Amino acid sequence: MNRMSSQSRKITYLIIIVCLLVGIVFLGMPASSEEGSGGRLAQLRVKHNLGEGSLGKVDPSSTTMNLLLLGLRGVATNLLWMEANEQQDHKNWAQLRTTVDSIILLQPHYTKVWRFQAWNLAYNVSASWDAVADRYFWVKEGIKFLINGSNRNLDNPELLWDTGNFMGSKIGRSDEWKQFRQYFYVDPEPRLNGGVDPELNPARKDNYLVAKDYFLLANDAEEKDPDKQHIMANILFRHYPVRAQFDYPMALQREGIFDQVTTEAWRVGYDEWTGKFGRELFDTETDGGWVVLEASDDDITRLAQQDGVSETLKREWVDRYQKMVNYIFWRTQARVEREELTMQAHRELYQGEQAFKESRMSEAQELLESGMAKFEKVMTQNDSLLLEDDAIEEALNAVLIWQHVHELEGKQVPANYPLKPLWDSQQERVQVLTNEFRREYGIK
Amino acid sequence: MSFDPQPYNVLLALGHWLAVFGSCLGIAFFVAFMTGVASGRAGAVIGAVTSSFSDFFSTSCRRIGAVALLTFQESKRRKALYVFFVFAALFMFAGWFLSNPSNRPELQAKSYIVFVLTAISWLILPVMLLLSCWGVPEDIRLRSLHTVVTKPIRRHEIVLGRMVGYISVGTIVLLLMGVIGYVWIFRQIPDEAKPSLVARVPVYGTLTFINREGKQGSGVNVGDIWDFRSYVEGATKARAVWTFDDVSEQRVGDQMVLETKFEAFRTHKGNMEKGLLARFIFVNPVKNISLPGKPFEVKEYQDATLVIDRKMTEVDEQTGELKSFDLFNDLVYTDPEDGGNKLRVEVQCLDAGQYLGMARPDLFIRLADRPFAVSFSKSVLGIWLMMCMIVMLGVSVSCFVKGPVATLAVFTFLIIGQGMREFMGRVVTGQEHGSGLVESIYRLVYHLNPTVEIDDSAATKVMFGIDQIFKKLLWLVQHIIPDFGVFRMSPYVANGFDVSWEAAMVPCLLITLGYALPCLLIGYYTLRFRELEAK
Amino acid sequence: MSQENVIEIKNLSKIYRDFWGRPKVQALKSLSLDVHKGEVFGLLGPNGSGKTTTMKLLLGLLFPSSGEISVLGKPAVDVDKNEKIGYLPEESYLYRFLNADETLDFYGRLFNMSKAQRVERSNQLIESVGLQHARRRQLKEYSKGMTRRIGLAQALINNPDLVLLDEPTSGLDPLGTKDMKDLILKLKDEGKTVVMCSHLLADVEDVCDRIAILYQGELKTLGRVDQLLESHEETNIRTSQLSPEAIKDVEAALAKHNASVKRVDHPRTTLEELFLKTVEESQARPGQRYVPPEQGAEAKTTEQPVASK
User: Fold this and answer.
1) What CATH number does domain B202-366 carry, 2.60.120, 1.10.287, 1.10.10, 1.10.3210?
2) Chain B: residue nearest C111 by CA?
């Protein structure tokens, strides 16, 4: 180099710079709107769907942050994560929330971060608060966090499924489910003036129906790219929308609502279960080939022929898949529950119990008797119900209360009454239920 | 929400300062004297020390002012004030990051306040650090200092002038930032969060516990990792006992405001729709009065305010008579041992099987509020004092090392002083297991974890002996490095408190003052005994 | 000698050491000299001869390795002496972001002068160094000559008794050089002592009363300029341009008086000759050093072996 004149050195530099520039342009030129334009990297980005824009809503602050940190964002995230842990230990919730937001600015496309932190907010932080309204606030924070995550990561089935799951189970199945479900319509946050939280429930729907919407979105996303879903077996993942549809009337019944809406919900559920989910084709990825859950004999024959396997094997696989999602149970349940008679039976038994609790004994006796008769009818029409624990327990409980009402009124329990055969055949269970009943009502 | 201001022990601090300062001074003089003796010029060393006194006595404000003004002009030339524009730009966009309308109002206010104060300190401190660490070395490198020292200016005047100059630059920028930050908080914060912009003046008491058997004891740990709060069991004799000092009519007024923030822990669901029930009991142990207040519901993580009227009544259970009590005449008592106007408040949880968690700052008497501006400006003053510290350290360190080294050194001070002092303290006091230097090496080599006992032998005794020396050195280092954590006053402001005079302002002021003299001396002696020309 | 000494240097040595304290360069070797009150004293020497080191030792910017220096009756490191000293550094080491007014104001403050005094003095000085037109411009925009002038103004702000000038004329054009020389002579007239160091011999010759020539840290020659330059063996005749015939006539005339023409050329500066001779001699006989006379004794040159490193 020393021997070169300064002139020729400059020319060498120039040539090197030009070479590098050409390389950079070839590799890194950004794409224009034209198809296939841009440098090699831009084309690869399009090909593998890696562009920020294609991953979801682009947050300018997040991109800037990542640029500023150069390669250190992993380290920065770790530090923030540790800080978040400490803030959680020290119950510093406000700061925790902002720290989590900062983490997400750094790792906007790391699904696990979204899922973990959302869970933490909705379950752990929420449980640390004493007042139910406060707990609900943090459940919402977790859900909103997930929705935000879905916006940043379009077509991510896991985040969508989590959103559905939080909307459904967290709100509908927590210890505080009664209040939570109510809050879903009438939010306790003062700024919402007793309305819904538009971020969660803009259409003022039941939480399970909102959950169903998210499960459907999750299914759509999963259909686009099944490899993006690592939570559970494909068939389980697919059955969630209808499960949410079932959970909806079940929640209504728990709340004592036995009306047209409930029956209708069961009916929709039944149709979707058998007509839609039941007709979906699933690949067992084994010698079982393709299966369908709502399989007629014709279906079995056709599928067996198509995959070139025996009908027995095909039936085995269908059976195995049905068991995975408890297919037959839910089908029976929905079929029975959608009937008007079933609803009446439920309603009368429920109202009878309420009347008993409120010491309206004769009314209780009347309602229970009528309900028991209807329940017996439903059961005889649907043999398979005789195998379902929930149904049996509901029936036996009604009989227990009915008998107790007789006792209190000083009457003799008649020798014959509706559901007596069931009562007699389930003596073991009756014993357990009697003890529970006595404990609940403080009867010695 | 671990907000627990501890009063500062001024005498202890002063003692520490004297010990550290004295021993450093002693060591420095001893080393200088011994080298003087070695080179046969012991007299010169003593002469130099005595002549430095005459230097200090001929200090001239005009000369200091000249250097300060020069420093100011120099900083202006270095575009130091541009940091202000970064600040402004940051604030233009900060709203994007911070606004979270779904957040609770008080949490929103908190985020905004913390952001403003953190932004101010993170912008101004590095700039001041760089400026102060590079000023003197650049001056020496460009030899402009050579011309200056051929004038009758004393070396400490140069050091002082530099410090004053940088501090005044920082003050101007800080003032601007403070005003803008304050206005910004007020403009950005939604209306519903505005009420949380206050400066509450708390009077904290001391907290002791009475256990479920009614004996003096401690609270229960319900399994929190964080052992900040202790819990009392409901519907038992367990009580949390607060004793407040100096409760007088003049201070409190006709209505006493008690503010609480308790934590609830349930062992069973209970009534989920209702908070746990608790009540206060005012106890005068001297007159044997015990006056229970009305039960109230505990709202977790929220400040609850209870206004207690001066006149209180109670129906006597036996006679059915209405008895009335006066807060200051009947309930406030003089302790036979300590004296003073004490007030004893006991807290009881009323729900059986449930627990109430409390820590010292969870109950306090709230005196009349001060405006938010007061606590905000005090907090800015805290940043200002920290800036002064950094400038002083920067200037004095840069008198004997070059710019980059000085920057690194002060930065290290800053980092250690912010977060690692505590750890060093634990090492020094032996709370940290297996923390001796030689001991750690020994344990590493022999794969012994810190809890394994080491055999007692002559060799290990020597080892521990050496570690003791290292620990003494570490003690010195730990005490030389300033505790920068004290200067962070944003928690006060963010939590809606006035910045406490005893717990925050006094220590900050004292620490700053405590470092001023040593920094000045270091700067003076290094400039004086350094050959400026030698490179 | 009857004069009062402003500067007294006795056996001054300076050894530059490296980081480990090992001697690197011996910049001054046992220098002894005095500067009398009211004289203009020149320190001469090629680059690296130790003249700037001497200057900095005088100012207390460096500490002597051995020997003693007293300036205005005080040790060199004493700050008080600075009250009466003015120093013009080699390159003007001033703050480049200040303008002329601010610069003089700044140094005025360092002398604890009141506002009125500062204003008066700086107006006076700016006028005398001829910078009226540029007083509001930042120093970084100044030309080399202007920088020297503001440097000089700065040195005189306190009306000093002793002025130390490091290369006062470097970078000045002939006119500026002349101004500077006039100024130095004016200072002398005012009774001030001036110590200057330079390698521009013409300047020194014109203004200095006494000079010292340093070479490789050793004092080679010291004395009054007129005495040192006085040559008893030669006579220099300067004429207007002569024709060859005229030169022949002159030669003939000289031959009559038993003298001869040794060389006919444009005359060289005599100090330059002295200087070159001194340097050449030092190179031929290293270790020879000029020792100033004790009170009343003759000056002499000693031959002294150099202590090897």
Assistant:
1) 2.60.120
2) B152
Nearest to C103 by CA among C91, C114, C93: C93
Overall pTM surpassing 0.90 (yes/no): no
Query: Which tokens go with A31?
Result: 């794409």
Q: Does C217 touch chain B (CB under 8 A)?
A: no
Tell me chain B's radius of gyration from C-alpha atoms. 29
Contact B395, B135 (CB under 8 A): yes
Residues paired with B20 in a beta bridge? none
Give the tens place of pLDDT for each residue, C184-207: 888 899 889 999 888 777 777 778
- The answer on C75 and C41 residing in a single domain is yes
Say whether B2 and A92 touch across the interface (CB within 8 A).
Answer: yes
Residue A171 lies in a domain: no
- Note the helical H segments in C130-269: 144-155, 174-189, 201-207, 225-229, 244-256
Q: What total of structural domains would you count in chain C?
A: 2
**Which residues have a Cβ under 8 Å from the Cβ of B298 and sit 6 or more positions away?**
A130, B260, B262, B264, B275, B276, B277, B278, B304, B356
User: Max Cα separation, chain C?
Assistant: 73
By the CB < 8 Å criterion, does B77 face chain C? yes
Please name the residue that has the structure tokens 């200087």.
C275
Question: From the centroid of its chain, how far is CA B416?
Answer: 15
Structure tokens at A82: 């540790």
C224 strand-pairing partners? C210
Chain segment B26-44, per-residue pLDDT in tens: 888 888 888 777 776 667 7
Whether B94 and chain C come into contact, CB under 8 Å, resolves to no
Q: Which of B151-190 are b and which e, b meaning 16 or more Cβ less than 10 Å from the residue's Cβ?
A: bbbbbbbbbbbbbbbbbbbbeebbeebbebbbebbeebbe
Q: Do B73 and C98 touch (CB under 8 A)?
A: yes
- Test B298 with A130 for CB contact under 8 angstroms: yes
In B, which residues are within 8 Å of A121 by CB distance? none
* Structural domain of C245: 231-267
Closest approach of B383 to chain A, Cα-based (Å): 21
Cβ within 8 Å, pair B102-A199? yes
> Regarding beta strands C40-44 and C193-198, do their DSSP bridges make them parallel or antiparallel, or are they unpaired?
parallel
Task: Supply A226's token pair.
Answer: 């099944």
Q: What is the mean pLDDT of chain A?
A: 87
Decide if B97 touches A, using CB distance below 8 A. yes
Q: Do both C96 and C236 map to the same domain?
A: no
Q: How far apart are CA C31 and CA B192, in angstroms?
A: 83
Complex ipTM tops 0.85: no
Q: Chains near B, with 3+ CB pairs < 8 A?
A: A, C
Question: 3-state class of A280 per DSSP?
Answer: coil
Q: Using one digit for the tens of pLDDT, what is the confidence trace for A30-84?
A: 666 566 666 777 777 777 766 665 555 556 566 666 666 667 888 888 888 988 9
- Measured at the alpha carbon of residue B361, what is the angle toward residues B356 and B364, in degrees to the nearest 5? 95
* Domain residue extents for chain B: 10-198+370-529, 202-366
| Chains C and A: 3 or more CB pairs within 8 Å of each other | no
Q: With an 8 Å Cβ cutoff, are A61 and B263 in contact?
A: no
Res B314 pLDDT > 90: no
Chains with 3+ CB–CB pairs under 8 A to A are B
